[in-house]
Amino acid sequence: MRGIWMAAWVAVVVLACPPAWAADAPVPVRIRVLQGFRQGTPGLPPGLEDLRAQLSATAYVRWEQAGEVQSAMQPKKPVSVPLPGGESVTVTLVESRPGAATFEVSAPASRTQSRVTVAPGKRIVQQVTPERGGSAWFVTIKAGG
Amino acid sequence: MRCAGAAPLLGSRPGELDPTDEALLRAHLSTCPACEARQADLLALSGLVQEGLLAEASLRDLSGLADGVMARIPASAWRGAPAGPLGRLLSFLRHHRVLATASALAPALAALALYLYIGRTAGPGPAGLAIEVTSEDLAAIVLETSDGPVILVGEGSDGT
Fold first, then answer.
1. Is the complex ipTM higher than 0.85?
2. Is the pTM of this model over 0.90?
3. Residue B46 falls within a domain, yes or no?
């Protein structure tokens, strides 16, 4: 009888723990800085082929990658991503739980702030500067590396 | 009484023989020095054994014997020993094992159901994803694609 009680309470503890544990676990995140151009020869560099479905949905036809940050992000701890020209974008992992991660992207250059929840393997593509001279800067965020 | 009849009675303790045998033995010993000597030897030996056992026992500290024995008796061996509400509860559970098992497993199953429910409702899927975009000056447009959202900002109505 004592064993049954013990097993039951151990089960309760184990079942109650995963959400709390998952919420605090670091999440591998890949952040890339891209520049999109309205003019030029349409196409994607080989390194950006995985972004084709999202980038082809925009009016920009030529793309270049300018930087990349890979980090094991902790919830509530912002990561600053520098943009060429001295500007930067702040990416914060707001919350991580099994099956979803919520990111907050703050782009002072465009005075834009977003909060997006994505599933593992999905990617956020966000324009972080206004268009200037036919081009704009973007960041892509992918949880899970 | 002869020596053969007296021999089994030698070494007997006081009061161990019936009065008749004791009288016959006493009469025989008064006339038989050999049996009297044998009787003396047996009594002396019995006394030595008794004294030896007492001496051995006195060397041991038995003051904690009772407490030690009581401590080694498992609580489950007590029948109704714990008094009060706890004792009554334990007694009830002891006699209603199925109900006790069910009540013990109920919170575990409830936690499992809650965990699965939360995991299902908060899991991935277009309906569960949330996108909030705030921009002070520029219009923001969110494009949903199979690989994730695309957030565009721009002054024009076309968003780019």
1. no
2. no
3. yes
